[in-house]
Amino acid sequence: MANIKLKSTDDIESWNTKELRKLRITIKNRMESLKTNNKPKELPESHPLNGMELDNCQRLLDKVIKAEKKLG
């Protein structure tokens, strides 16, 4: 299983396929949680999505999808 904790989302181009896939799934789950819950779960500081709101998650998801397409 890919480990995405403590990885920087600023350098997403260096992530491998498994890490990008896990991050994409995690972002989608987080976005759903932010949409449906008034008080979503707090994420640990080591989590790449810590402190992100819905619009930040969407921008990151777009970056992840582009990075995945580059890797093929």
Please tag this protein with its features.
2 helices
Task: Note down, in words, how this protein is organized.
The chain has helices at residues 17-36, 54-71. With 72 residues, it is an all-alpha fold. Helix 1 (17-36) runs antiparallel to helix 2. The longest helix has 20 residues, at 17-36. The two termini are 20 Å apart. The relative contact order is 0.22. The mean pLDDT is 92.
Characterize the largest beta sheet: strand count, sense, and whether it forms a barrel: none
Structural class computed from helices and strand pairing: mainly alpha
- What share of residues is helical? 40-55%
- Rg over alpha carbons: 12 Å
Distance between the termini: 20 Å
Number of helices: 2
Low-confidence stretches: none
Overall pLDDT score: 92
Shape: globular
Q: Give the helices and strands as they follow along the chain.
A: HH
Strand content: under 5%
Secondary structure: number of strands: 0
